Amino acid sequence: MTRADRTQLLIGVAALAALIAVPFLTDSRYIVGQVLLGLFYAAIASQWNLLFGFAGVFSLAQMALFGFGGYVAAMLCFYLGMSIWAAMPLAAFAAAGFGLLLGLACLRLTGAYVALLTLAVAQAMYLLIVTDTECFMMIGTQCRQFTGGAVGFARFADLGTRELFGRDWLVANYALVVALFALVMAASWLIIRSPLGLAFQALRDNPGCAMARGVNRFQMQLYVFGFSAFLTGLAGAVYAAHFNAIGPGVLSLSTLLFVIAMVVVGGIGRLWGPLLGAVVLMGADEVLREFGEFRALGLGLIIAVSMVAMPNGLIGVLERLGALRARPKGEREAANG
Amino acid sequence: MDLIGSVVVAGLTTGALYALATLGLSLVWGALGMLNMAHGAMLTLGGYSAFVIVTRLGLPMPLGVLASCVTGAAAGAVIYLSVARPLLARAPETFETTIMIATFGVAVALENAILLVFGGQPFGQPVQIAGTLGAGGFTLPNQNLLIMVTAVLLMLAIAAFLKQTKGGRAIRAVAQNREAAELLGVPSGRVYLLALALSGGLAGICGLLVSSITQLSPTLGADPMLKAFIMCVVAGLGSIPGGIVASFGLALIESFVQYQFGARWGFPVLLGIVILVLIVRPSGLFGRNQVRRL
């Protein structure tokens, strides 16, 4: 285990300890709820970071995959009466399948083409769901669309936490989401350190050299795309289970923007960047909430400014500070002068 | 018969609009290798500028048209100076992706700034002409005719500019080979500024035209931009004539699909066609199969 690995592990353990401490430190259901929501965002952001920051694939279909997982879980429960516990892993596999198909269509291309095509697919999915008005079945006198239409699905899942834990159900759900987040981060870390991870990082850094050494770009990127789609879809399914609802709102551009902003602010290509970004942006969101209408404007500016001003995000800034301090004194003075 | 006629008219009109939006995007992609995600916001800005000049200030219509063009061009210049130039100077190798994220942020900020100033309710675009031309059951609204004529004139003007003038030759030179152009004394920074301002001006006029057949709203530019992306991908990014052909062709297909199967299927069918095209030709129908030096 190298020194860098130990640092990552240490940060992970510290973050996990802090997350476990939250419900013990506060009785406020609001705070626990917000931290839980932030964890969902951090999980999605970490997968976007895996794709873009580590594999160099610029996909804008992240929320589409998240929504796909959530919708599959919801529909399995709603139409087939399946238990949500069985539906969650199935939804993750379905999202991985969808991700692989999408990857097959898009990953033959590179760079901006991938971004455009994934954005178009995500937008098409959103528009098709929102404009769905055809009656699939009648519930009472109400018409129900197959995709749930503009309303989406609600009250389809029962995690059983309310029965088991009574008033503490939120804390039980919180524990589930912390477990999800830990799983997502651990899996990402393992994949980044695996031979596959080394291959896609080599492709990101120098595609020509990597391909000349026999690394198959399309195949490697397809694998990592499917892998991150699995975890993203799983997060979507847990999201649907926790809120007992899923609607087209998660597919909107502004949600995608929020996720990308977290990665950019935290640090692209840094394992813990998305978590730091999620903490900062959820905090900024609380502050901006006071000025409600300025929220989206502020977010847009935060993205543009941090992209220009700090290319490696807050983690990059911290690293640079650390590197400055680690240098011997004379050299530091030379660097400053 | 007149139904088919109006489907064709609708297709050609949207085709002209898509072609204008695509032209602006392609110009910047070709010159800088920059995908401007804020292009849609520049369209919106152009539409609202004309509205402010004509409806709010009561000035004559030609001034409104001028205002859309100037505001769009100014927005393009500001984007270059504040976002594109620093990113390009710092890390040219990651510019392709960093600029997408940064302009995405700019787009959201601009769109919401417009929402804050004007509110979400739609306005009518005052700059338009009324009346229709008709012959034997076939009608053509004057506004649609105006859109097509304007679009064609603008495209011809841009083509002439790129071919004949010094600035146009400089843009093409930088697009072909930036280093060689710089060595021969072409100031690439100023050329980039010119390309973005030109694309912004086009976007402003395009936004004005789009809003004249729909309505002014803060999200006005989003749909044309998404379609323009698709056209660019089909044609091959940076291929201007290809983009124009793709715009008209796909817009006609879209309006037939919408007429035949309902409005919601227009976009998914377009997307299906795009994916098929890309499977056969990954760099687009007219895209150069670029050999990149690594």
Q: Helices and strands in order, then pairings?
A:
The complex is a heterodimer of chains A (337) and B (294).
Chain A: H1 3-25, H2 29-54, H3 62-80, H4 84-106, H5 112-130, E1 137-139, E2 142-144, E3 153-154, H6 161-165, H7 169-193, H8 195-205, H9 207-212, H10 217-243, E4 245-246, H11 253-266, H12 273-289, H13 295-309, H14 313-326, H15 329-336
Antiparallel strand pairs in A: 1-2, 3-4
Chain B: H1 2-32, H2 39-56, H3 61-90, H4 95-118, E1 132-135, E2 138-141, H5 142-164, H6 166-176, H7 178-183, H8 188-213, H9 222-235, H10 240-261, H11 266-280
Antiparallel strand pairs in B: 1-2
Helix pairs in contact in B: 1-5, 1-8, 1-9, 1-10, 2-3, 2-4, 2-8, 2-9, 3-4, 3-8, 5-6, 5-8, 6-8, 9-10, 9-11, 10-11
State the main characteristics.
heterodimer, A: 337 residues, 2 domains, B: 294 residues, mainly alpha, two-stranded antiparallel sheet
Structural class of chain A: mainly alpha
Mean pLDDT of chain A: 85
- Structural class call of chain B reads mainly alpha
Give the mean pLDDT of chain B. 85
Strand content bin of chain B: under 5%
Low-confidence stretches of chain B: none
Largest sheet of chain B: 2 strands, antiparallel
What are the secondary-structure elements of chain B, in order, as H or E?
Answer: HHHHEEHHHHHHH
Distance between the termini of chain A: 37 Å
Strand count of chain A: 4
Distance between the termini of chain B: 56 Å
From the alpha-carbon coordinates, what is the Rg of chain B to the nearest angstrom? 19 Å
Largest interface: A-B, 45 and 46 residues
Q: How many β-strand runs of chain B?
A: 2
- Uncertain runs of chain A are none
Instruction: Assign an overall shape of chain B.
Output: globular
The profile of the biggest β sheet of chain A is: 2 strands, antiparallel
Measured as a percent range, the helix fraction of chain A is over 70%
> Which oligomeric form is depicted?
heterodimer
Q: Tell the overall outline of chain A.
A: globular
Report the total helices of chain B: 11
